[in-house]
Structures are given as structure tokens and as C-alpha cells.
Amino acid sequence: xxxxxxxxxxxxxxxxxxxxxxxxxxxxxxxxxxxxxxxxxxxxxxxxxxxxxxxxxxxxxxxxxxxxxxxxxxxxxxxxxxxxxxxxxxxxxxxxx
Amino acid sequence: xxxxxxxxxxxxxxxxxxxxxxxxxxxxxxxxxxxxxxxxxxxxxxxxxxxxxxxxxxxxxxxxxxxxxxxxxxxxxxxxxxxxxxxxxxxxxxxxxxxxxxxxxxxxxxxxxxxxxxxxxxxxxxxxxxxxxxxxxxxxxxxxxxxxxxxxxxxxxxxxxxxxxxxxxxxxxxxxxxxxxxxxxxxxxxxxxxxxxxxxxxxxxxxxxxxxxxxxxxxxxxxxxxxxxx
Lengths: 97, 230
Known about the structure:
The complex is a heterodimer.
Chain A: E1 2-9, H1 16-27, E2 40-45, H2 52-60, E3 66-71, H3 75-78, E4 90-93
Chain B: E1 2-7, H1 14-21, E2 26-31, E3 42-45, H2 65-75, E4 79-83, H3 85-92, E5 99-101, E6 109-117, E7 133-140, E8 144-146, H4 149-157, E9 161-165, E10 178-182, E11 188-191, H5 209-220
Parallel strand pairs in B: 1-2, 1-3, 3-4, 4-11
Antiparallel strand pairs in B: 5-8, 6-7, 6-9, 9-10, 10-11
């Protein structure tokens, strides 16, 4: 099944990329933008979505410094396979280790 | 004393590391796909851009076959030094605490920096004295050392902060000006600046030799320095 993993810097950790983007937007005339954070998107097809959290913890994210969200767009039909997650097919890890 | 320097695809400082180590002992290259440390007494994980820094710096190198052996070696007390990308690899492998994040400037910076030796008891700094200043080049874009505050407090309490940027020399935003840390036992050390590029006065400084000499001291006097030398 198709899955998406969204990875972003943990709250409270300085994110200079986000700050640079936040400073650039007003220069183009876009006002009122705050709290910009830059992360990564990983898309993947997986046979066993129950393995996604372990994949995130061990490789896709560095849980010390990054949070991740796992999104499964077609999770409705597959929800029996994915454990006690939010019915929208989104699960998160704050991954403190 | 025999040093082994790991070479990953994308490493670029392995030859300087071999040349530096060869000043105090024998030195060989270890290929990332091998599972044999070839009987070395110390392993150096060198600088560069292993696996293109894909995903995160150091994240993929951690899973190469040789790293399983390096982890085993480290957990049995073997001497391991991670330099720059090697430091990132050792943090990703959880052999060292913390993580390296992009410099606050977001720029690749290459400059000579002064480091202060904070702990001269580790296996990689015992040829130094506490408070020594080492002039060593740094060159990286992802060198901002970070760990949660309680972990930083613990590192300081355990004497695991090995090197700091001297006042005015920090440029990457590292927490508490940390340039290098060790594991609890002191056999594994990582640092962002490059001691292997500072081993001959011809290139401006030979201060980096002290790290290699420290490892050679351990090999020569495996128990004779335990905690007693500053």
C-alpha cells in the first residue's frame, strides 16, 4: 500500500531553513507568515504498513531530532492491518529515545 | 599500533587519515563492504560525504557491513575515532550521544579553529593536557552538535565533552560550544574538526597529531594511564 512519511524538525530545535524561508516570503510581498518549518517527504509502497513506525524509528527519521507523521491515503480499506491508529490513517511519532 | 581507516563510497578524507595515523603507527584502509577489521588496534571513521549524505548525513553509512564490526569492536572497548562525517555516522549508530544538525548559517564553512581540550583522559586525548588549545581545520555544513539539555548536563557531569570550540571560534551553532564528545567509557570519540589535516607545520599546524599519539599511548600502555594522566 502507498504510504507517505512526513518528517520535520522537532519543536524547540532551531530550524534555520524554516527561518530563511520565513524571512524570504515578506521580501516577495507575502506578509503574515509565521512558524515556517522545512522537513522531508518520503513516499513509499509497503506490503506491511505495520512496519512503518519501525522504519521511521530506525532509518527514515532520526527520532532524537525529528518528528514524523505516517499517512496512508488508502488506509480505510486496510485499517484492520495497521493497528490502533487514528481512523484517518495518520499516526505520529515523537520518538523520544 | 595499527590503525584502520574505513572507506565508504563518498568518503574523501580517508587518505589524510591514513597518512596522519602512519606518523605514529601502521595504517590500513578498511573497505565498507568488508566484515573484517584486519586485526587493527584502532578504527577511524573519516570525513567526507558517505553515501552522498542521502537522507541525513551518516544515516546510510551506519548500515554498511563494516559498521557492524565497528560497533562490536567499540562495544568491547576498541578505540574508535569519528571525524566530521565519521562523527555523524557514530551518532547515527548510537555509539555516541546526540546529533549533528545543519550549521545555523546553512553554509559550508572551511576555517582553522582553536579547540580547547576539556577531557584529557579519553583514549584519544590522553597525550594532551586539560586546557590545551589545538589549532585544527574545520570544514562542514552539518556540524551543529545538539542533544536535549538533560543529556548535555549528563555529558558534562560524566566528562564526556572532550573538546569545545575556544571562545570566539564556534561558528556552527553547536550546543555549549561542543566540538567533540566521547561515549561513557572514553574509547569512542567523535569531533567535527579534522585533526588528520593538522599533522605537519607545512600546512599550518601539527596540533592534530596529539589525537593519534593518544591512541598510540593506549596501545603501548593499555592499563598504565587509566585516569591518571592529565
